[in-house]
Amino acid sequence: MKTVALFGTFDFLHAGHIFVLEEAKKLGDKLIVIIAQDHIVEELKGNKPIHDQSERRNLVAQLAIVDEALIGDTSLGGYEVLRQVTPAIVAIGYDQQELFDDVSQFIANHGLTMLVSRLPEYEKPGRKTGKLREAFGV
């Protein structure tokens, strides 16, 4: 069984998120979604998530395509969760170059054998969470 891990915030769940989850699931048999902790979201994006990490984890876990949803590491760039779930593939969003580089470096530095795969972009413009938050004034 090939396990795929996908990192994300998954706040204000929308069609773009579903697309990313579907694309990640195509890479393997089991999809584990790793939800960013609230303080990390705020550090990276400059604002607090609409839903707290437990709510986001619970929402994502309810999706049929997701086999398991976990709350991620307590520190930015830790990626210790990868040692716990030992995926064959780590899927990264098309727009997350820094995460792609950081995860690749972590894997190389720790002698892990996981592949890192970049996912395609969702075809409908304006479907990123930041754009939707702006449009709805949240």
Provide an overview of this structure:
This protein has 138 residues and is of the alpha/beta class. The protein has a single domain (3-136), classed as Rossmann fold (3-Layer(aba) Sandwich). The protein has helices at residues 15-25, 38-45, 53-61, 80-85, 97-109, 129-136, and strands at residues 3-8, 30-35, 68-71, 89-92, 115-118. The chain has a 5-stranded parallel sheet, with helices on both faces. The mean pLDDT is 90.
Characteristic key phrases:
Rossmann fold, 6 helices, 5 strands, about 40% helix, globular
Describe the structure concisely.
The protein is built from six helices and five strands; from the N terminus they run βαβααβαβαβα. With 138 residues, it is of the alpha/beta class. Strands 3-2-1-4-5 form a five-stranded parallel sheet, with helices on both faces.
Number of strands: 5
* Anisotropy-based shape: globular
Largest sheet: 5 strands, parallel
**Superfamily at the CATH H level?**
HUPs
Instruction: Give the helix level as a range of percent.
Output: 25-40%
- Oligomeric composition of the shown chains: single chain
- As a whole number of angstroms, the C-alpha radius of gyration is 14 Å
List the helices and strands and how they pair.
Blueprint: E1 3-8, H1 15-25, E2 30-35, H2 38-45, H3 53-61, E3 68-71, H4 80-85, E4 89-92, H5 97-109, E5 115-118, H6 129-136
Parallel strand pairs: 1-2, 1-4, 2-3, 4-5
